[in-house]
């Protein structure tokens, strides 16, 4: 695994609606204060992911896949636990629009998004 250099400005994501799943271009987010940007190497799409719009009802849509593993591509201000290039795995909150190639998520400070170091 190696980091993309420079970090791309756009990426593709599986965008799921109750009727279909399609690839859509999305911007790569910049990590904010207390966040890290993960360059995902693996993203799991489980039955809960494709059932989520049905559970929400109506015309709900989101980016599919929230179980991820990858490398820290960038860190936001105030991040102390992770450095660029660190191997990590994370479980993000469902239906929040996290992206399959790169995602910004909070450094693990006891919230409901978990990111852990790999060795």
Keywords:
119 residues; mainly beta; five-stranded antiparallel β-sheet; three-stranded antiparallel β-sheet; 8 strands; 41% strand
Please render the helix and strand layout as text:
Elements lengths: L9 E7 L4 E7 L7 E10 L2 H10 L5 E2 L3 E9 L11 E5 L10 E5 L7 E4 L2
Antiparallel strand pairs: 1-2, 1-4, 3-5, 3-7, 5-6, 6-8
Task: Please describe what this structure looks like.
The protein is 8% helix and 41% strand. It is mainly β. The strands form 2 sheets. Strands 7-3-5-6-8 form a 5-stranded antiparallel sheet, with no helix packed on it. Strands 2-1-4 form a 3-stranded antiparallel sheet, with no helix packed on it. Strand 1 and strand 2 form a beta hairpin. The longest helix has 10 residues.
Beta strand count: 8
Unreliable spans are 109-114
The number of helical elements comes to: 1
Arithmetic mean of pLDDT: 76
Taking the alpha carbons of the first and last residues, their distance comes to 13 Å
Query: If strands are numbered along the chain, what order do they take across the biggest sheet?
Result: 7-3-5-6-8
Structural class: mainly beta
What is the 3D form?
A: elongated
What's this entry about, in short?
This protein has one helix at residues 47-56; strands at 10-16, 21-27, 35-44, 62-63, 67-75, 87-91, 102-106, 114-117. With 119 residues, it is mainly beta.
């Amino acid at each position: 695994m190696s980091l993309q250099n420079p970090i791309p400005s756009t990426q593709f994501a599986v965008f799921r609606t109750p009727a279909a799943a399609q690839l859509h271009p999305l911007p790569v987010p910049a990590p904010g204060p207390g966040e890290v940007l993960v360059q995902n190497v693996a993203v799991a799409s489980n039955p809960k992911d494709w059932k989520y719009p049905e559970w929400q009802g109506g015309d709900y849509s989101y980016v599919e896949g929230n179980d991820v593993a990858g490398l820290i591509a960038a860190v936001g201000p105030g991040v102390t636990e992770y450095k660029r290039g660190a191997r990590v795995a994370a479980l993000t909150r469902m239906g929040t629009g996290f992206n399959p190639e790169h995602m910004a998520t909070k450094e693990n400070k006891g919230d409901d998004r978990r990111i852990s170091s790999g060795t």
